[in-house]
């Protein structure tokens, strides 16, 4: 039986118990489902090796600036860290289980961009998301919570209307490559208390700048690789 955490923000608690994540094996085959709460308990990650499917959106405007968000203070995992545009989970529902061309993850991305950032669905058509890769990683948040995800990386270039949901997002900013490098420097130096999410840092260190350059050149589809699962744990 799952024990309710009374210290948890009410909105986040509801999401933790209502949302059913898609459990997968290390080859991204669906093996079941479990609520978000149980998927993010480190004791389950370590003892049961629970691994769930996730997505990370990288949204660029027409100037090829990347939209970043700072996660809200009430987030259960990694509160107040800066990260890519949107990071969440496809849910165990028909529309988000579709594996062909990563359609389930793309449907989930459109849903969560509205939920978290108030970006209307018409601003981010599902067919405009380009799946560019998959990675598997594990990251503890604190002693109790953590992440163990098979993460779909989704790129999209669109000018959008943004109206962040304060339950999810504390702040947003667009950055160019030089500005992001300065953020990385500050995070590494511990300046201004700035922290980056572990999954965003893995993408930055392994893929982001190369993919960003290809996005600018219009050659992103040529380097997209959805066959490989990069194991970065």
UniProtKB/TrEMBL annotation:
- Keyword Magnesium (UniProt): no
What is a single cellular component term in the Gene Ontology annotation? Answer: cytosol
Its annotated pathway reads:
Isoprenoid biosynthesis; dimethylallyl diphosphate biosynthesis; dimethylallyl diphosphate from isopentenyl diphosphate: step 1/1; Porphyrin-containing compound metabolism; chlorophyll biosynthesis
SUPFAM superfamilies listed in its UniProt record: Nudix
Give the enzyme class: isomerase
Q: Where is the Nudix hydrolase domain?
A: 50-202
- Where do the coiled-coil regions begin and end? none
Q: Which UniProt keywords apply?
A: Chlorophyll biosynthesis, Isomerase, Isoprene biosynthesis
UniProt GO MF annotations: isopentenyl-diphosphate delta-isomerase activity
Question: Quick one: signal sequence residues?
Answer: none
Q: Which GO terms describe its biological process?
A: chlorophyll biosynthetic process; dimethylallyl diphosphate biosynthetic process; isopentenyl diphosphate biosynthetic process
Enzyme Commission (EC) number: 5.3.3.2
One Pfam family name is: NUDIX
Report the function annotation for this chain: Catalyzes the 1,3-allylic rearrangement of the homoallylic substrate isopentenyl (IPP) to its highly electrophilic allylic isomer, dimethylallyl diphosphate (DMAPP).
Family from the record: Belongs to the IPP isomerase type 1 family.
**PANTHER family cross-referenced by the UniProt entry:** ISOPENTENYL-DIPHOSPHATE DELTA-ISOMERASE, ISOPENTENYL-DIPHOSPHATE DELTA-ISOMERASE I, CHLOROPLASTIC
Q: What is this protein called?
A: isopentenyl-diphosphate Delta-isomerase
Q: Which organism is it from?
A: Oliveria decumbens
